[in-house]
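Purpose: get a first structural picture of the assembly so the mutagenesis plan has something to point at.
Setup: two entries, given in the order below. No constraints added.
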Amino acid sequence: MKKFLFYFITVVIIIFLEFLFSKFSVFGLFFIIFIGLYRGSYAGCTVGFFIGIIEGVFFAATFGVLSFSYSIIGYLSGRLPKRIDEENPFAQISIVFFGVVVANIINLIIEVLFTGIPGFFLILWLIVPVIISPVFFLIFKKWWLFWFDRLDVGR
Amino acid sequence: MFNVSKKNPIVLLSFYLIISVIILSFNLNPTVKAMRDFLFYLVVTPYSKVNYAASSIGHLGANLKEMLNSHQEVLELKNQNQKLLHDLVKLKTLEIENKRFSELLGYKRNINRKTVIARIIAKPPQHYYKSLIVDKGLEDGLSDNRAVFGFYKGKFGVVGQLLNVEKNVSMVLTITNRISKVPARIVSCAVDGIVIGKETSELEMIWIPADSEIKIGDEVVTSSASDIFPSGIPIGIIVSINQTGHLPFVKASIKPYIPAFQLTDVFIE
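Result (structure tokens, whole complex):
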């Protein structure tokens, strides 16, 4: 129940922040990668699916695209090899960068498949948020520890 | 299913992907679209109002600051405006003075080299139409009974003569003074007479032969009979002609060209 409340409140805050900073609506993706990395594929793809659904209502051109791509990103980040140090900021930046690129590619493919209209490959203006993603990871970690006693890597 | 998917997340992912594909296939369905729009409206409308209120409050400080800055700018502009008005008045005064000096300079080139330009330093009220005080005297080579001319609105004419010349100042007896008598000539009919002062704004010319063909508007100049004034210097124009009873002479009222009491400088020859 506590976990459910944690995820619910976090998703609400993230959606609110994405409304507030609509130009940088990547907080959701960062959180999905964070959960995937620390809590594993199961939590990653579930959080990815629900954030994708909610973001899809408000931000996506095609409803369902984001739930599809974010589920995959959450799953993939949970499937990363254990030898990757999730605490290393450079590893975090690289994972987030590839996560954003893969999410954009999946979005493009799904958009073309289901609507025939290719979307935009938006990556350049996400460079700055990607570079500062370790800060977001730190905030997410503190937020998790605010709710729970410890954060075990479940990968 | 829950337990299976927890052990094998790929099953859960497949489940989510299938749901996503189903959602995608219903994406263009009007009902789904309407629901999505409704949800969007529910969330975004209050948010936009809150955002508008927050941005308005945020702008309040900036607006206040801008108002204060504008007020400061208005005060500075008012000061600048006052200064500019002051400068403008100064410039206009200088322009008038410059014009007058240019005219005086132009005249100075055409008159006798020995002519002295003197500034009127006093116009005693009790001596109105009688005399003026100028700032030149014995030290400037002046002496009594020198002719004094003036320049007014493009006209050159007689003002009077020097009477009491002191070291640095002199008194000018104006032609409007009662004791002033200037031999004069009416140019149009070459008739001589005497111009005397009346201590008003007009002069009077007496001893004009009654049979002379004078008329209003005729110009009166100094005649060669004068020891003080050179001949042909304009005095004024006739404005009225008066009979003198049984005498064979008439009198004429003359409006002088030069209103001596409006001058600032005079020429002394």
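Chain A has one domain: 2-17+26-78+89-147.
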